[in-house]
Write a structure and sequence with these properties.
842 residues; mainly alpha; Rhopdopsin 7-helix transmembrane proteins; Growth Hormone, Chain: A; two-stranded antiparallel ribbon; 37 helices; 7 strands; flat
Length: 842
């Protein structure tokens, strides 16, 4: 919206067709629909039901603010919004600036009021549901209002000094671009939208009611998905506007003047239009669940109860209920159709049908009528049709066995589902590795800052298991931990957005830490789940195969990175990467719902202790074992095994991440005319592919070779190759790069199986301490945050290749674990036990 009106072209050669008519029509239509539904809601509540609640007042406030924003947008179209600078008159510039400013100030309060109305509505429902539903509703309400307050203040004071906000010709203020504010606030918008959409679904599907009514309820609340669709469209246009504006400004965080960039009114027009649509559609979705009373008056045929019994009730049950109206308690036999006299059946059938219709008609009154006293809790508690099944409204699944009692056939079914998570974090790990290098290049960061990003990721692995992972696994179980980890992970991927928009290195560090935190919580539960889900003989094999899938995820992400991130060379192209992270965050939501509805087997500490006594320890044929068999000095043998396993895990991950970060520097000093057969990206691809193959191979070998022996061989092989790389003569390294290439690939091969072998082996025999042991082993992977720094300090003195002795030392010290298992007979018997009484694994 430049002051000079002579400009006729736009940045990036975009089409300058007039958008004002489109903006005018779309805004008027959506705000009109929202107004009609607000009127219908008020008639339903104030006239028909005669009861107005706090959420009704909030939605009216949201509508008033949205109406104001829409009116401002409509007025702005008459002052040049949607037009290029060449078509904007000089006298329109100041009113247009004021309109854009007013719209930006009204947007967030309108959105906050709309979402708060829905969340207050959820809180009213939560009085008859579980406590967790209420806690999440309160948390979302605080997030919506706190975020909305901050963003509103930022919009009000987006220019400094505020008194110069509307200056046109000279002495312009320094402002934060509106597009930057909108894009950086996108994570809060999406997170709260997802919470509002997903939160009521478990409650609604858990209510025992006729399928027709349940379908109506779920569909009504699922209309919120349209808000998310509008969000995606809005973000697309915001991104396009950001790319166009960033080509005209030196910094994405500051501009001179409010909207004084060339063709600004045209560039941001669709972004503002879809912003108005977002709020109006949100109001529409918030009003639809409350319209039953007025729809019942106007079009009663749409809500007429069905003339047949619910699919969850039998005619016999209905007759029994009605037949008991005299207060007597019929015997079980009297509820059988064959035991009821025909006269009673005929007499009670009309009454039963009428009662059934009334129940069905009133099944959703707790949604539409605030004063309705419902028995929803009773319906939820009775949703299990039998003690051996789990009822979710749409599916009726047999309740699984205890985790420690699964057969081989059962275990593979559940382990296959959990292996999806391994692919997810393998994919994320590879994606972050590639993206971090691009971020360092774009932000012109030093090598130490690149290592800092990696350390932030693995730092999350230290804090995640010891905090949320510990609490969720020990208090809630495996399913709760999966869902909690997916939620944190999804939030972390969304936090990448403001970091990319602002090119903020601290923002990248925080988002990377949160992603690592979420994935570590997932790993805290997924690794022990696979190790424990089935016969002990196959524990290491199950985990090796799943970790092999994780490595495949890393390979797939590297292949996709060549396509998705090939053009990521500057700030404007970095913004486009956010679509990948948006897709990942939505995938996390879908997986969270999947695991919520999937009845995964669980195991309490007592059940794990029982399994330890009956299946894990061959010496436990008596209830009380001699202390000499279970302790070394003052410490239990299994506790010592766990401690050494955590130590070995820490050293191994430190070595692994050191290799991943620094292997490319091994090929930096080859002589001209001598180059490796593969490019650096392909070397990484081949290395991770071999890494995956070695895990699958060791998984098969576990059937014939003891896992502790495979672990020892892997660590010794990796140590030997690391020593060879460090000791290789300089002449050989520079003139025979393929030798270094072969050694590097071999190092990846031997590193592959180490992590799952240590984890599954150290977890054996812990009994009631198994979950706490899994937490410690997951936290032990935090060595990845420290290993690369050691080589970084060493390479400045002796070079990268010579510094690979650090990798050799770390792997050599990790060999203490298999050596300990070989030397200490009691520990060896625990880890070699195959689950068959009296026999050891061969």
């Amino acid at each position: 919206m430049a002051v000079e009106s002579s400009h006729s072209s736009s940045p990036n050669d975009i089409n300058l067709s007039d958008r004002s008519t489109t903006i005018l029509i779309v805004t008027i239509v959506t705000v009109s629909v929202a107004t009609v539904l607000i009127a219908g809601r008020l008639i339903s509540r104030a006239v028909i039901v005669k009861h107005i609640t706090f959420d009704d007042y909030l939605i009216v406030i949201g509508w008033i603010l949205s109406l104001g924003a829409s009116v401002v947008a409509v007025f702005a179209t008459g002052k040049g919004l949607g037009k290029p600078d060449a078509r904007i008159k000089d006298e329109w510039v100041l009113p247009l600036k004021k309109c854009i400013y007013a719209f930006s100030v009204l947007y967030n309060p309108a959105l906050v009021a709309t979402k708060s109305s829905l969340l207050v509505f959820y809180l009213r429902l939560s009085r008859v549901t579980n406590k967790l539903f209420r806690i999440i509703s309160y948390a979302a309400l605080m997030l919506v209002n706190a975020g909305g307050l901050v963003l509103t203040l930022l919009n009000i004071f987006q220019c400094r000094p505020v008194s110069k906000t509307f200056n046109v010709h000279n002495d312009l203020a320094k402002c934060i671009p509106i597009i930057t504010l909108y894009l950086t606030s996108t994570p809060i918008t999406i997170v709260t939208d997802v919470i509002i959409l997903v939160l009521p679904i478990p409650m609604l599907t858990g209510i025992h009611m006729p399928r027709r009514q349940k379908n109506i309820l779920v569909f009504t609340f699922a209309l919120g998905i349209f808000v998310m669709i509008v969000d995606v469209i809005r973000v697309y246009f915001l991104q396009q506007a950001m790319i166009d504006v960033s080509s005209l400004t030196a910094s994405p965080t500051s501009t001179i003047g409010l909207g004084d960039e060339k063709d600004y009114a045209f560039i941001v027009s669709y972004s503002l239009m879809w912003t108005a649509v977002e709020v109006n559609i949100g109001i529409v979705c918030a009003c639809i669940p409350t319209l039953k009373p007025i729809v019942k008056r106007i079009l009663p045929i749409l809500l007429e109860p069905t003339r047949h019994h619910s699919s969850h009730e039998t005619p016999t049950a209905s007759v029994a209920k009605v037949d008991n109206t005299d207060g007597s308690n019929p015997s079980p036999e009297s509820t059988l159709l064959g035991k009821i006299p025909p006269a009673n059946i005929v007499a009670t059938a009309p009454i039963a049908a009428k009662a059934s219709q009334k129940v069905e008609a009133d099944d959703i009154e707790f949604i539409t009528i605030p004063t309705t006293a419902t028995n929803m809790r009773a319906r939820q508690e009775s949703s299990a049709s039998s003690s051996g099944s789990v009822y979710f409204g749409f599916v009726n699944i047999r309740r699984p066995k205890c985790l420690a009692d699964l057969s081989s056939e059962d275990s593979w079914r559940y382990c296959t589902a959990v292996t999806i998570l391994f692919f997810l974090w393998g994919f994320s790990y590879g994606l972050l590795n590639h993206l971090n290098s691009q971020i360092v290049a774009i932000s012109h960061s030093a090598v130490s800052q690149g290592i800092g990003l990696l350390s932030a990721y693995w730092g999350g692995y230290i804090f995640g298991p010891l905090s949320l992972g510990w609490y969720a696994l020990t208090r809630g179980g495996f399913k709760v931990t999966f869902i909690a980890g997916l939620c944190v992970y999804g939030v972390g991927t969304l936090m990448f957005w403001p970091s990319a928009v602002l090119v903020s290195f601290p923002g990248f560090v925080i988002s990377t830490f949160v992603v690592g935190f979420g994935l570590s919580v997932l790993e805290t539960a997924a690794n022990p789940f696979l190790a424990l889900a089935g016969p002990p003989l196959y524990g290491e094999m199950r985990l090796l195969l799943a970790q092999g899938v994780q490595a495949i995820g890393s390979v797939v992400s590297e292949l996709l990175s060549k396509v998705l991130f090939a053009s990521v060379k500057e700030h404007s192209t970095l913004i486009g990467v956010q679509w990948t992270y948006l897709a990942i965050s939505y995938l996390a939501v879908i997986l969270g719902l999947f695991f919520y509805y999937m009845p995964l087997p669980e195991a309490t500490d007592q059940e794990l202790q029982r399994a330890r006594r009956s299946r894990s320890l061959p010496m436990n044929r008596v209830i009380i074992e001699p202390r000499t068999l279970t302790h070394i000095g003052a410490f239990r043998v299994v506790s010592i095994t766990l401690a050494i396993g955590v130590f070995a895990q820490f050293l191994y991950v430190a070595a692994q991440e050191t290799v991943n970060l620094w292997f490319s520097d091994l090929f930096a000093d080859h002589d001209l005319g001598f180059s490796p057969s593969l490019t650096l990206p392909n070397i990484s691809l081949v290395g991770h592919s071999v890494f995956a193959v070695s895990r699958f191979l060791c998984g098969a070998l576990c059937l014939v070779i003891r896992p502790r022996k495979l672990l020892c061989a892997s660590l010794l092989g990796g140590m030997a190759i690391s020593i060879t790389i460090a000791a290789l003569p300089s002449h050989t390294a520079t003139t025979h790069p393929n030798t270094v290439l072969g050694l590097t690939v071999g190092l990846y091969f031997f590193e592959g199986p180490v992590f799952p072998l240590i984890f599954a082996t150290a977890l054996r025999g812990l009994g009631r301490a198994t979950k706490r042991g899994a937490v410690m082993l997951a936290a032990g992977t935090g060595g990845g945050a420290m290993g690369p720094w050691v080589l970084f300090a060493s390479q400045s003195k002796i070079g990268v290749r010579r510094s690979f002795w650090i990798v050799a030392v770390a792997l050599g010290m990790a060999c203490l674990f298999p050596v300990y298992l070989k030397v200490v007979r009691r520990a060896r018997e625990v880890v070699d036990w195959n689950g068959v009484e009296g026999k050891e694994r061969k």
